[in-house]
Amino acid sequence: MSKTDVVVTGLGATTPLGGDVATTWSALLDGRSGISMLPEEWHESLPVHFAGQIAQEPSEKLPRPRLRRLDRTQQFALIAAQEAWADAGSPEVDPLRLGVVVSSGIGGILTILEQYDNFREKGWRRVSPFTVPMLMPNSPAAAVALEFTARAGAHAPVSACASSAEAIANAVDMIRAGRADIVIAGGTEAAIHPLNIASFASMRALSTRNDDPQTASRPWDKDRDGFVMGEGAGILVLESAEHAARRGARVYAHASGVGYSDDAFDIVQPDPEGTGQARAITLALDDAGLAPRDVVHVNAHATSTPAGDVGETRAIRAALGDAAADRVAVTSTKSMTGHLLGGAGAVESIATVKALHDGVIPPTVNIQELDPEVAVDIVRDKPRDMPAGDVAAINESFGFGGHNIALVFRRA
Amino acid sequence: MAHSEQEILEGLGEIIEEIVGTDPSEVTPEKSFVDDLDIDSLSMVEIAVAAQDKFGVEIPDEQLKDLKTVQDVVNFIQK
């Protein structure tokens, strides 16, 4: 039985590089860094003084009374979803055929921490009555469902930094299963707070390059010393190709294949052999009915950690085989955005889709000396044209817990 | 400390604007919170706590459900 063809018809994002897809995309092509200094008063207590903070505050887009009852993850998700929906042409769809899959890796942790402060300082009556619907990890999905009256189901798969890639994978599955004609899919994260920075720093996961923050996120550089925390959201409108054709929608790309695996190796360390990562790629290509030679580009997970980046390139080589791996152009847009955690997979899927659509691959910046262990061709410093024709690109996302997701997009 | 009806109305107007975004000119004595001002029960809790801070009068939960209109709250605070 042939699978339902699923296409991408709308894109929306709010990131450290810009308040929408157009600004974010042009910054990615320019090789611009979205990393900035954290508030001065945080510096003394933390070993990390910078992060990928959102370029445009939600208060510029949403009215104040709405903001107060939405966690920052929900605010980002709504802003990105509004853009994606408008970009898709605000489709007319039966609410019972419209679904939502929107993830957050961590959930409404800023709400939890702020309300805990309220509770400790002022007592239970000063805890906001909206605390629970703001802190729930499903709250961004629920807010988007409410905004667009999506009644086919609203889901929020959680798999740490793979969450929003998994959301897109689940959305493709949802359309293929016949449960929806359109799904609003993606992810969001808003976790920049001293406690969270301390938590990642205490596991030695973060870069501490305080003297040069904009070059701190340097995937595959020999001297990379950890990732840079970011915040933001990415949302895609996914649609059955049949539904999109019927309404004459503009199609960015096909969402052709999804691959899931888990390392079951260690709670945080990726399997150094990259076996599980490679399996996700292989499964996604099989699911898409494509061969390794069809793949011309990979938007990698590569976060700038010593442990992860190189292993991923080995996994790409193992999955694609030498002939295809020699020709694939690999990049990490995290070198500019920082790591958006539960928002990463969606923002990077948008970059992957835009690369296919516009025929140009954004670079990886900040590689001063390439790690000699890197096993694939990295697009460095300047964007690179993508081959014409019927080609495919892969977005990879991995999360603590050993979660691996590979998504295959094919040029429309 | 006693508050005049006008003070309370203005104060409530500010609170309601802050919490649900309603224009303060809409907050007039005869208005029902639920039917006219479209304020839900969770927002009502926030409004009650904010009113307590502003006017120094505690509104117990069992009273809150009986305060249907703006005038009801004004009367309660003045009492």
TrEMBL record, chain A:
GO terms for cellular component: cytosol. Belongs to the thiolase-like superfamily. Beta-ketoacyl-ACP synthases family. It catalyses: a fatty acyl-[ACP] + malonyl-[ACP] + H(+) = a 3-oxoacyl-[ACP] + holo-[ACP] + CO2; (9Z)-hexadecenoyl-[ACP] + malonyl-[ACP] + H(+) = 3-oxo-(11Z)-octadecenoyl-[ACP] + holo-[ACP] + CO2. It comes from the Bacteria. CDD domains: KAS_I_II. Residues 3-411 form the Ketosynthase family 3 (KS3) domain. Its EC number is 2.3.1.179. Pathway: Lipid metabolism; fatty acid biosynthesis. Involved in the type II fatty acid elongation cycle. Catalyzes the elongation of a wide range of acyl-ACP by the addition of two carbons from malonyl-ACP to an acyl acceptor. Can efficiently catalyze the conversion of palmitoleoyl-ACP (cis-hexadec-9-enoyl-ACP) to cis-vaccenoyl-ACP (cis-octadec-11-enoyl-ACP), an essential step in the thermal regulation of fatty acid composition. PANTHER family: 3-OXOACYL-[ACYL-CARRIER-PROTEIN] SYNTHASE, MITOCHONDRIAL, POLYKETIDE SYNTHASE-RELATED. GO terms for biological process: fatty acid elongation. This is 3-oxoacyl-[acyl-carrier-protein] synthase 2. It comes from Nocardiopsis algeriensis. Keywords: Acyltransferase, Fatty acid biosynthesis, Fatty acid metabolism, Lipid biosynthesis, Lipid metabolism, Transferase. GO terms for molecular function: 3-oxoacyl-[acyl-carrier-protein] synthase activity. SUPFAM superfamilies: Thiolase-like.
Automatic annotation (TrEMBL), chain B:
Carrier of the growing fatty acid chain in fatty acid biosynthesis. The keyword Lipid metabolism applies. Belongs to the acyl carrier protein (ACP) family. 4'-phosphopantetheine is transferred from CoA to a specific serine of apo-ACP by acpS. GO terms for cellular component: cytosol; membrane. The gene is acpP. Keywords: Cytoplasm, Fatty acid biosynthesis, Fatty acid metabolism, Lipid biosynthesis, Lipid metabolism, Phosphopantetheine, Phosphoprotein. This is Acyl carrier protein. Pathway: Lipid metabolism; fatty acid biosynthesis. The modification O-(pantetheine 4'-phosphoryl)serine is found at S41. InterPro entries: ACP, ACP-like_sf, PP-bd_ACP. One of its GO terms (molecular function) is acyl binding. One of its GO terms (biological process) is lipid A biosynthetic process. PANTHER family: ACYL CARRIER PROTEIN, CARRIER DOMAIN-CONTAINING PROTEIN. The keyword Phosphoprotein applies. Residues 6-79 form the Carrier domain. It is found in: Cytoplasm. Its main location: cytoplasm.
